[in-house]
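Project outcomes to date are best conveyed with an example. Our students and postdoctoral researchers have been running inverse folding experiments weekly, and each run begins with a structure described purely in tokens. The record below, which covers 324 residues, was selected by the lab manager from last quarter's runs and is presented without edits.
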């Protein structure tokens, strides 16, 4: 339950991403800068935190062991995750992006066969691929049903181009985020803490953000002061606070696939908070009965997921289970 509450808190801060990215787009800001500035601003914060905790040496030592893997999974976990989300902000409101993002709930479950699980028994150690947990999938379907009702009301009057431009990139991001996060969990396996892991992934993704910012200068020019300020807020709230909270929560249950899926499901809270944020900050329309029913369904699915995850693990006879 602790990990789920932390994950839900992370979704509050993460919802600011959808609200402010949309705000920057409405002001004429470029998605090149919305994406790259967030990670540029994250670096000094994370460096300071890890340095004060005395973890820089251990982090660099860990990164030197598997530089290729760090580069690849940081690319998926941060670049393929965040660049499409900021791009999609130009095609639709924050509620639509946040709603589509909830496909990451099912994506995390469907990606299970890409990872291995080591089961320690009294007879020895058995290593095998994880399976798709169908008994954990149905609460996620409830959450997605709620998202459907929210979008059903709001999508009236939205063109097919806007729907495709906002849906396809976010679906790609929804699979990339849990893929990069879980692969990094496998790689470090608790040898470094959450702050170190986020810093390492940020540093490894910097070359891509430098390239994107360079293209942004050529194509759009320098960002406005408003975009810089809002990107700074996104970096602090979503890039630092939300990411660290979420990674910390997933790290707590990294050896329990069912609970890990439940923690990832807490990110559905971001659609509720993004909806309310747009309503209050950007003057969005108040939801109708259909929209309110969708929000209630999302919350219900989250509650079911949290209680469902507290059941006994599938391998009850094992002495311990460990994902590697």
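After processing, the design step wrote out the following sequence:
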């Amino acid at each position: 339950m602790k990990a789920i509450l932390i994950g839900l808190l992370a979704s509050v801060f993460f919802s600011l991403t959808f609200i402010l990215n949309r705000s920057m787009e409405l002001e004429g800001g470029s998605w090149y800068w919305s994406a790259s500035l967030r990670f540029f601003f994250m670096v000094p914060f994370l460096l300071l935190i890890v340095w004060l905790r005395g973890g820089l040496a251990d982090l660099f030592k860990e990164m030197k062991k598997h530089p290729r893997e760090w580069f690849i999974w940081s690319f998926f976990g941060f670049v393929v995750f965040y660049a499409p989300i900021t791009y999609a902000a130009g095609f639709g409101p924050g509620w639509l992006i946040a709603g589509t993002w909830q496909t990451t709930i099912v994506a995390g479950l469907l990606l299970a066969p890409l990872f291995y699980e080591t089961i320690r028994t009294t007879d020895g150690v058995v290593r095998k691929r994880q399976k798709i947990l169908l008994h954990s999938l149905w609460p996620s379907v409830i959450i997605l049903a709620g998202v459907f009702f929210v979008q059903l009301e709001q999508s009236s009057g939205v063109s097919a181009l806007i729907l495709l431009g906002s849906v396809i990139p976010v679906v790609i991001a929804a699979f990339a985020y849990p893929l990069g996060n879980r692969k990094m969990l496998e790689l470090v396996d608790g040898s470094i803490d959450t702050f170190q892991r986020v810093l390492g992934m940020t540093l490894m993704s910097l070359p891509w953000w430098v390239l994107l910012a360079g293209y942004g200068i050529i194509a759009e020019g320098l960002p406005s002061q408003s975009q810089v300020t809002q990107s700074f807020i996104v970096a602090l709230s979503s890039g630092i606070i939300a990411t660290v909270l979420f990674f910390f929560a997933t790290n707590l249950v990294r050896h329990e696939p069912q609970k890990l899926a439940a923690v990832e499901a807490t990110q559905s809270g971001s659609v509720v908070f993004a909806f309310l944020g747009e309503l209050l900050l950007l003057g969005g329309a108040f939801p109708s009965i259909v929209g309110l029913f969708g929000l209630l369904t999302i919350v219900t699915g989250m509650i079911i997921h949290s209680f469902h995850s507290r059941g006994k693990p599938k391998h009850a006879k094992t002495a311990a289970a460990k994902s590697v």
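The longest helix spans residues 160-188. The two ends are 23 Å apart (CA to CA). The training component of this project remains on track.
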